[in-house]
Design a protein that fits this description.
Blueprint lengths: L8 E10 L4 E3 H4 L7 H8 L3 E3 L7 H18 L8 H5 L4 E5 L11 H9 L5 E5 L5 H14 L6 E9 L9 H4 L4 E11 L4 E9 L7 E2 L22 E2 L1 H22 L9 E4 L4 H11 L10 H4 L6 H12 L7 E8 L3 E8 L1
Parallel strand pairs: 4-5, 4-6, 11-12
Antiparallel strand pairs: 1-7, 2-3, 6-7, 8-13, 9-10, 12-13
The chain binds acetyl coenzyme *A.
């Protein structure tokens, strides 16, 4: 078993996910957009995406995923509490990773979630760091638990409604994204299981490569403005692709080296689900079989900060993860940012 970076352990005792019921296939998109299933599948691996109806906001998905994570911990008797309400009262921090929060500046979406699940004793904050938000949130959660004896549990959620922030006339971006949320309940323990190391990084020189310009203090909305296109993601796809392949490769290599591990020690790599071709290229560079990477992008497309916790929940509930398995989560996104976590399940 690998050496742990932290002096205490952070075990994931519950996972949950939520996706909106409306499922839109590539063929359905092709009815209103100059695209086709063959192009999207061959360039990205995406077959469908789940899209939130107008009444569903980021926190709605986050709350559902959070409740599912709490309920899993109770079902598996990973905690003494018997109801979601009781368990929610023991949560010390609610962290929501998202770039498509309920409100533009405030309040934090985590506060909406904290209230909705009845986590009355918890602090709440958002981590707004695009597709890397969940890994940044995980490290924030572990850090906040480790610095105080009074904190024991943190809910870390990745939740996005990206469909509301894409230009639905731009076939180069809109086909890539989907909506959803995933959550984990982190508990401070003395167990050798849990997060053993996380690395975080950024290269702000690529800030313009993936950007939502309108509405911030750089390009504020002004009285009298006519909205031609609602705020939306603009992307230099090639630049992001190149960055992503390098970030995935280097993050995996650095994490393994820091823990004195070989790639063979890792049961499964859980990458951010942005494009299957990014994973294929990274697998080739690392000389690792593609099958060692978990992919569910075909069903959900790119759900940004939600993609890794959704994947963790699917793996957990399907029984694919055995106790003691070492898994490596790796994310990258706008910023440009990246990060990875080694987790002993
Ligand atoms: N359907 C049909 N044709 C399309 C589509 C589409 N949906 N989108 C683009 N095309 C066309 C283009 O117009 C272009 O046509 P042309 O040659 O006649 O000009 C052709 O396909 C090639 O376009 P490229 O943009 O060069 O295609 P590329 O092979 O680079 O693939 C892609 C584009 C999939 C976006 C790729 O660059 C990529 O995956 N980049 C990384 C994107 C990413 O991961 N973003 C998110 C990461 S961070 C986060 O998750 C927020």
């Amino acid at each position: 078993m690998s050496k742990k970076e932290y002096t205490v352990g952070f075990e994931i005792i519950g996972t949950g996910k939520a996706v909106p019921p409306k499922r839109v296939t590539n063929d359905e998109l092709a009815k209103t957009l100059d695209t086709n299933d063959e192009w999207i599948r061959s360039h990205t691996g995406i077959g469908a995406r789940h899209i939130a109806d107008d009444h569903i906001a980021c926190s709605d998905l986050a709350v559902e995923a959070a409740r599912n994570a709490l309920s899993w911990a109770i079902e598996r008797q990973a905690c003494a509490e018997k109801t979601i309400e009781e368990l929610a009262l023991t949560v010390d921090m609610v962290i929501v990773g998202s770039s498509t929060t309920d409100y533009f500046c405030c309040p934090a979406t985590a506060c909406i979630v904290q209230n909705a699940i009845g986590a009355k004793n918890a602090g709440a904050m958002d981590v707004v760091n695009a597709c890397s938000s969940f890994i940044y949130g995980l490290e924030t959660g572990a850090g906040l638990l480790s610095v105080s004896n009074d904190r024991r549990r943190a809910l870390v959620i990745g939740a996005e409604v990206l469909s509301r922030f894409v230009d639905w006339t731009d076939r180069g971006t809109c086909v890539l994204f989907g909506d959803g949320a995933g959550a984990v309940l982190l508990e401070k323990t003395n167990s050798p299981r849990g997060i053993s190391r996380t690395i975080l990084g950024a290269d702000g020189s690529g800030a313009g490569d993936l950007i939502m310009k309108q509405g911030g203090s750089r390009y504020p909305f002004k009285k009298g403005d006519t909205v031609v296109t609602p705020p939306h993601m603009e992307m230099n796809g090639r630049a992001v692709y190149n960055f992503a392949v390098g970030a995935v490769t280097e993050t995996i290599t650095t994490l393994l080296k820091a823990e004195n591990l070989a790639i063979e020690d890792v049961a499964l790599i859980v990458p951010h689900q942005a494009n299957a071709r990014i994973v294929q290229a990274a697998a080739k560079r690392l000389n690792v079989p593609e099958g060692r990477f978990f992919l569910n992008i075909e069903e959900y497309a790119n759900t940004s900060s939600a993609s890794i916790p959704i994947a963790l929940d699917e793996l957990n509930r399907s029984g694919a993860l055995r106790t003691g398995d070492l898994i490596l989560c790796v994310a990258f996104g706008a910023g440009l940012t990246y990060g990875g976590s080694l987790i002993r399940w």
